[in-house]
Automatic annotation (TrEMBL):
Superkingdom of the organism of origin: Eukaryota
Biological process according to GO: cell division; mitotic cell cycle phase transition
Protein name per UniProt: G2/mitotic-specific cyclin-B-like
Species: Drosophila pseudoobscura pseudoobscura
Gene3D superfamilies: Cyclin-like
Region (Disordered): 1-22
Length: 349
């Protein structure tokens, strides 16, 4: 059972006197677009971000064929993404965001998120629910210093409940979540924590998620299903890594797709393989990131991916070995010479 696995991990860490986790069993009106773009440009001062097309470079209109489909809101889609880029700056996860925690470490955070992913799989929920739960956890722990270790799983399971209420057609019953914690917490505990989390984040669940950007970038790249699924795998793995938590969701999405395109299209003998040819002018335009900006992030993700089969926490890796995920975690490219060359460049930096 999911709860038992988390308990065993906690007990093992406790016995070793290290990092134990104690558990027991959109739409933006067009009239506002100019103002929002101006704010975005000011906030994103990095010259390699928020880029536009160079003179003479052809940029494909990826929304040209969507004008008759009202559900795709092609008239407003660029305004919507202007707004999302602004929101991820306004609602950041800061570097070393657990610095104010005396009783909680990044290893304990990883154990919690691995468990959240297993619960997410048990309920067969959409990607947004898992990613939003992680965002809520990080925002709460960033804001509430000295959170008790005994309350960490309570924060996690409540963040998952909030995310499910926000993203799913049907959210799980609280009694089911109590069961997954093996009665460590009561329904009342979860309800009270829900109020505390909402108060802490000011009832604001609008921080964008990597999946919001990944779908847009995949459209710009014209990806095959396997390329997009592999990028989703990379995005989920980054949720486990404390060092990647402070990157913007758009950066995580872009770097994950960049790596996927290289591994499935690249030449194993092409050095580091991180060439501009796999990050087209159209991708650079719609993502607002150059290949140069993405390379350092992409290499960090590559190291995480290569090490995933040997990691102790394997919920995400095991998930993406399944046929419903195109078996992407079993692809030989993830441990081949091209991947090795990309990771080796990371180690040399």
């Amino acid at each position: 059972m999911v709860g038992s696995k988390l308990k065993r991990l906690a007990e093992k860490n406790d016995s070793e006197n290290t990092d134990q986790l104690q558990v027991k069993k959109l739409k933006v009106p067009s009239s506002e677009a100019a103002t929002k773009r101006a704010v975005l440009v000011e906030l994103q001062a990095n010259k390699e971000a928020a880029i536009g097309p160079e003179p003479g470079v052809a940029i494909a209109d990826i929304d040209a064929n969507d004008k008759e489909n009202l559900e795709l809101v092609s008239e407003y889609v660029n305004d919507i993404y202007d707004h999302l880029y602004q929101l991820e700056i306004e609602l950041p996860i800061h570097k070393d965001h657990l610095a104010g925690q005396k009783d909680i470490t990044h290893k304990m955070r990883a154990v919690l998120i691995d468990w959240i992913n297993e619960v997410h799989q048990e309920f067969n929920m959409v990607e947004e629910t898992f990613q939003l739960a992680v965002a809520i956890i990080d925002r709460y722990l960033q804001a509430v210093e000295n959170t008790k270790r005994s309350n960490l799983q309570l924060v996690g399971v409540t963040a998952f409940l909030i995310a499910a209420k926000y993203e799913e057609e049907l959210s799980p019953a609280i009694k089911d979540l109590v069961y997954f914690t093996e009665d460590t917490y009561s329904a009342r505990d979860i309800r009270l924590m829900e109020l505390q989390i909402f108060k802490t984040i000011d009832c604001n669940l609008s921080r964008p998620l990597p999946i919001h950007f990944l779908r847009r970038y995949s459209k710009a790249a014209g990806t095959a299903i396997e390329q997009q699924t592999m990028a989703k795998y990379f995005v989920e793995l980054t949720a486990m890594d404390y060092g990647l938590a402070s990157y913007k969701p758009s950066e995580i999405a872009a770097a994950s797709l960049f790596l996927s395109l290289h591994l499935l299209n690249g030449n194993p003998r092409a050095g580091t393989g991180l060439d501009d040819q796999h990050w087209s002018p159209t991708l650079a335009h719609y993502s607002r990131y150059t290949a140069t900006h993405l390379r350092p992030i992409t290499r960090q993700i590559a190291r995480l991916v290569r090490d995933a089969p040997q990691a102790k926490l394997k919920a995400i890796h095991n998930k993406y070995q399944g046929s419903w995920c195109q078996n992407v975690a079993l692809r030989t490219e993830l441990s081949g010479p091209l991947m090795d060359s990309i990771v080796d460049q990371t180690l040399k930096q």
